[in-house]
Amino acid sequence: MNKIKKLNISFVIIAILSLTSCSKDFLDEELTTQYSTEYFETAEGLEALTVSLYGNIRWHFGYEWAYGLTLYGTDEFTNANDLTNEMWNTYDSRLGPLGATPSTGAANWNATSPAALWDEMYYGISSANTIIANADIIDNEEIKNRCLAHAYFLRGYNYYRLTAQYGGVVLQTEPAVGVVRNFERSTEEESWEQVISDFRNAYNLFAGEVFTYGKGITWTKATAAHFLAKALLFRSSERNSDWNSAYIQSDLQEAIDACSYAIGARGTLTNNYSDLYANWTGVDCEIEQLDEILMAAGHNADGATTGRFGNRTYNYFTPQFSNFSGGWVRRGVWIGGMDFQRCRPTEYAYAVYDHVNDARMWKTFKTVYGINNIADNNLGLESGDPGIVMILNSQNDNTYDGYNFGAYVQNPDWVDVNGRLPEWEEGSRQTETAGTLTSTPGQYVPNVSVLYQNGEYVAPNFKSQPICNFFAGINKTDDGSRFAEKGDAHRDVTMARLGETYLLRAECYVRLEQYGNALNDINVVRERAQWKAGENRSFYSDGSQAFENNALNTGTAADNYVYSNLNMNTYYLSNPDIAVTTDASDLMLTSFPGNLPAEDEAILTAVGAGSDYERALHFILNERTRELLGEWQRWETLSRTGTLISRARAFNPEASTGITENKHELRPIPQSFIDGLLNDDGTNLTDAQKAEWQNPGY
After folding, report:
1. Gap between the Cα atoms of 359 and 361, Å rounded
2. Measuring CA to CA, which residue among 404, 368, 373, 359 is closest to residue 389?
3. CB 445 within 8 Å of CB 439
4. Which of 93, 297, 308, 488 is the most buried (most CB within 10 A)?
5. Per-residue pLDDT tens over the stretch 289-311
6. Are 115 and 123 in contact (CB under 8 A)?
7. CB atoms within 10 A of CB 426
8. For the whole model, what pTM was predicted?
């Protein structure tokens, strides 16, 4: 197993080269270029190595694996016309231990290998082991505990990710000496015990909410509490039902206690859901410092601190807007996302929301692009007119049954339903308290789509490629601060926050059949999701606005920024029976798990959830979508709860035919690792021995 042993030193050196020793913000440190392995056997070296652990988590957001491992093949997202990681969504034969390349049917060389996560997590584990083994050489007790807390947390987190994806893994908890190629694979029970033990140690060692390395970046006791709760909940969940009965009651109670600490330590949720993602204005802006954020992968605009992995997540949630008919919307840094069309929302991802009352939907989905390129001077369109409009209506809406949507469509009445929407004025902008989406009645809107006509889901029919590339993307990664169209993003990537902590605790209560307690936590999350009095429901923002402070914001680029980003959504077009209002909305549940909202009842019927427990669990999964859509954890959540197969089949047509019971709840163990193993006597493993290492079905 050369890869795991070689990384014992290699990751440490790479991380130290990029991130060096501690300060208020580890990303601002100067580059240090000379270290030997002996340096990490000193107190100074161990603290520097501790800070370098933050670099390991950047890996998760540096390339195509960000979505392939976490979002594809679930109920929320499917692939669009780009097929880079198609096999992770369709579960076809290319998803196997060898990985996929063009020679084995992959669309290109960018396809994610099953070995990617396996290899990278052991880099961080190796560094953590070095800190834990040598911590006693640190005389200062406060610094020693801080280093140990970080090391236990990172090791626990990396083993969490490995065990969640692969099941039982190799548990390496001491620094390796030399090259080791004979290992034992631990059971899933043993692996979860290690994860939980590490998180417990981190929880006990962290000195409360002390932001040693910069607020919004530093791991604290609340961070460890959140992930301890997740690990305990995972061990007590359906995927482990063959062996976990002795753990369930105590694990759930401990998870509740851990969640309660995090919630109590960090306070209430931030008031405006937009502040979590949509209102990002640039590097280290205020919303990256929210108390709600428990863990983030830190990034900034200093190229010297980028390290091996920058933030590429802005590529993955945006439709192929520049390829829509006529080329009316050109891509560029002035639009915060690249149109790589990797993650296309499923019908479920739209239908799970209350389209009228849930502000999260309209603060997340981007539904309007302005024209920044006049493709046809004969159509009477001007720069800054709506060029792409996506109407997210509901299945029971018949307003648009007779319309022909798509490219180059003239619909004289669509922007003036029942005469209630005022005309759009050139140069006008939405504000958070005023304005409604319109364009001039009767003008062309070059590209328009709708979700439903005649009660049928027709959204995938609007495309300019064989597979749909026209959809409403989400805005949680948009970044207008990039220095080039394909440059790295500079915004942090949130990895844990209190909105999820409340839902974790609610799920624990559900599993204990304490439905009243679960209802209380759910309603905390849903209260924040309501429209507040005075809000303009047509207002939209995203991280494109960071372009205002970008040095590239001059000349034509500055014009394109203004023309492209209209601060509009299609709330009123998508809810044509709703009069313009700035009243507050109501999402509060009054009973649970009976008498749920209509959108939830439809989903529960589709998955066959009948008992109180099934209804409550699937409601929690629905609420996690509404609160956490696209936040890099859906696959593990569905695998954990034993709902991956049923929900993928119900809501992801591309995944439904390939996904298989007793196979796809786990990932394949990388064949490159298995082939590198040796027996104790130095002989190669037999085919039968190799087969024992592999997960079922691969």
Report:
1. 5
2. 368
3. yes
4. 297
5. 999 999 999 999 988 878 788 99
6. no
7. 9
8. 0.92
